[in-house]
Sequence to fold (421 residues):
Amino acid sequence: MVRTRHTTVSRRANSTVRPKTDLWWAHRTASLPDMGNPLVARMQGFGTTIFAEMSALALSTGAINLGQGYPDTDGPREMLDAAVEAIRSGRNQYPPGAGVSELLAAIAQHQRRFYGLSVDPAREVLVTAGATEAIAAVVLGLCEPGDEVVTFEPYYDSYAATIALAGAVRRTSALRFPDFAVDEVSLRAAFSSRTRLVLLNTPHNPTGKVFTADELALIARLCREHDVYAVTDEVYEHLVFTDSPAPHIPLAGLPGMLERTLRISSAGKTFSCTGWKVGWATGPAPLVSAVLRVKQFLTFVNAGPLQPAVAVALGLPDSYFDGFRAGLQARRDRLVAGLSDAGFTVLPSAGTYFVTADITPLGGTDGVDFCRELPARCGVVAVPTQVFYDHQEQGRRLIRFAFCKREDVIDEAAKRLRTLA
Ligand SMILES: Cc1ncc(COP(=O)(O)O)c(C=O)c1O
Fold:
């Protein structure tokens, strides 16, 4: 694929396998006009992510990286063993398009077990390359150019890029500071006759908010009133802490929502295997079939030998899910104590891997500047929350810390942060 004139020409010119007689190629490389930025216009607003910048900063300074949300420990032994066994026993070729049968069954069983939701594994479940591919395939599969997608600010960064790729239009409603409550007036205003779907993330990254029953009822009411689809990103479904004001409630379970909702989740967060990229979408057969139609041309299939291993993980006893959540809650508390001692105003985190801190008491006025300086000041990396906003001023003084790290790492980070006080 031609990416840039320079990289393509030099890579090909050095190639020893391409015969000199390849006149087509000689012509192609010689005559490429200088077309400026080859990237399509709708992606030009999307630069290198702040996560890459902050992770590079962590590497170059040796700071503790609490910027990116990935655990530094492995997932359950049973799951890892099952993956090794699947690789050794030869399950290394393309799996079936929708996913291997035991994972489809395990996803359906998991939904019944935790939420009482019933889906047919043969028609209403699709395995994807992480939740990211599910989100992309849903938006590309359901939205015509010009259709509108309603979502909440701040939002997970892939939403904006995916909506742009589909040629759809993002309409946002900002969660209210400081409790990140849904603002009914702005949410209603985000809907129009062009709305195609609502993209909801609960438990919510980056805020750690868990949407309440009343907020979900409002969203469901608006979806029904405007007759639109709901797409729910529930990758942190098992990470709701015992002091959360609300439990995790799938929107699909609300009256009139099952038939219009696609639920998305992923093994990455629940089973500490973010690099496996095994996700899924479940919902009514026609919706799942539309998503499959797109997925087959994005990745076709993915993670063959990892799929049976995730099936094993989904069937683990309650003690695994409870223990995982309790461990993260304890690490949240240790980090929050360090942040409070350092002088930040710490906002409540009811779930996920993340907690948000307000930098105002420490004299900070801009999260990006603050995060760029933090490694030099105390050897810790965080990410500025404003990058998750369209209206960046709303999150300018907020920064996000991930606490999905080993206890000794969290304790050391908390110790370093205390030196800011
Ligand atoms: C809210 C949210 N959705 C989706 C994803 C992506 O999940 P996956 O790694 O399974 O693609 C993440 C990862 O950080 C996330 O935080």
The pocket of pyridoxal-5'-phosphate is lined by residues 69, 130-132, 156, 201, 205, 233, 235, 266, 268, 274, 277, 279 (CB under 6 Å). The chain is about 40% helix and 15% strand.
